[in-house]
Structures are given as C-alpha cells and as structure tokens.
Write a structure and sequence with these properties.
alpha/beta, Rossmann fold, 7-stranded mixed sheet, two-stranded antiparallel sheet, 9 helices, 23% strand, globular
Length: 224
C-alpha cells in the first residue's frame, strides 16, 4: 500500500487536533463545506468518501444518506475512526489506498473534499476517471479545494498546526500563491476554478464549478 505524509505523520489523534482550531473562520469553512454537500443529499444515497481520515465528514453526513463508506490509507485513522463512528450503523470506514479503490458496488455520491486531491498527490485529470468509475448512472462526484479568497485564513490555520507540532515548520520563502510548504517535506497545493473547469471538461460529463462561503471551490460532476 502506498504511504504518504498523512499515513506516516499526520494521522489519528494528530489529525483530530488539526480540526480543533481556535480560528472561527476556519471552523466556518469546515462547516459550510459539509453543509453544501448535505443540502444536496436526499436521504437515499449510497455515499463514498475518498481520503476520509477518521470519519469527521462521514459522521456529519450519516443522517442525510442511506449509507456512507469512507476509505483512508492510514490504519491508525481507521482504528480511531471506528471508535469515533461507533453507534452510527450506516457508516463504515475501511483501510484502502484511494489510488486503488476497488468495490463490487457503485455509489450514488463520491466525495473528495477539503482539498483531498492535493493530499493524495495525484494527477487530477487522471484520477477523475477512477472517481467516475465508482459512480452509478446519475450519480454525482463532489470535489473541493480552497478558494483564493481564503488564503490568509488557511495560512493562519496551517501556522497553528505547525505551532502544535502537527506539521513541520512553515517554509515562508517557499509558501505562497496557494501553495503551503513545510520544512519537513509537507506540501499542499490547490486547484483553481480554471483547474476545476479543466477537470470537469476532461471527465466528459455534465459538470459545474462553484464557490462556497468564499472558502471552497467545488467541482460537481454528474455521471449520465
């Protein structure tokens, strides 16, 4: 199984601390991103989240869909997540590399949220083919990244994480223009609206790109 920064350095309890932030604007961003998806669920969907971490988003969406499955590369995340999601019968969290997801079933909704494409270190135009193959006809993929308008808040949040020892020291010289670099090798990029538009076009399906809360850029693709 392919390892990455999140499986080796930022998992389980550490990842939980990432979202225990003092920045109210960041909390709003996290809530609004989930709400955007929740408002587009009808309650009957089978949902799959790629790069689900310990199930933070899954827990919030579980009451708005028929079932929700999450996959994450980190065994620690999944073990922690099984406790975090205990008592939620329609949620399951599995150890699986998001680059090589295999299911005998398809899903009505596939989620790749909170800049997950960056975390997965994947080529978006290639990865979208895998995402679409996981969808049933009529299903939707929700992919999100950060809005450029959220940059200062995002940078403050990552500096907070660095200060907690969850990430390495921010490399201030290399950080900028939507890219955050740490001296321990961590690097997070973003997808711009133009990037999202290119991915949508490459999918060959109907799609839309929209900004949410001046913090997220969403690409929604419908498999016809």
């Amino acid at each position: 199984m392919k390892e990455n920064y999140y499986s080796k350095n930022l998992n389980a309890q550490k990842l939980y601390q990432v979202y225990d932030t003092k920045h109210q604007r960041v909390k709003q961003y996290l809530e609004e991103e989930i709400l955007f998806v929740k408002n587009r669920l009808g309650g009957t969907e089978r949902v799959l989240e790629l790069g689900a971490g310990y199930g933070r988003i899954m827990k919030e969406l579980s009451s708005s869909c028929a079932s929700i499955t999450g996959v994450d590369i980190s065994q620690d995340n999944v073990e922690f997540g099984n406790e975090y999601l205990s008592g939620i019968p329609n949620a399951r969290l599995l150890v699986m590399d998001a680059h090589n997801v295999e299911f005998s079933e398809t899903f009505d909704v596939v989620l790749c949220l909170q800049n997950a494409l960056s975390a997965m270190k994947t080529q978006p135009l290639e990865y979208i083919k895998k995402v679409m193959a996981l969808l049933s006809p009529g299903g939707k993929a929700f992919i999100s990244s950060y809005s450029a308008k959220f940059w200062e808040h995002r940078l403050a949040w990552f500096r907070e994480q660095s200060g907690k020892g969850l990430l390495g020291e921010i490399d201030e010289e290399q950080t900028g223009d939507g890219v955050i670099v740490c001296k321990d090798g961590f690097r997070a990029v973003t997808l711009s609206p133009n990037d999202m538009d290119a991915v949508g076009k490459a999918s060959g399906y109907a799609y839309e790109v929209t900004e949410v809360n001046e913090s997220s850029i969403f690409l929604i693709i419908t498999r016809t």
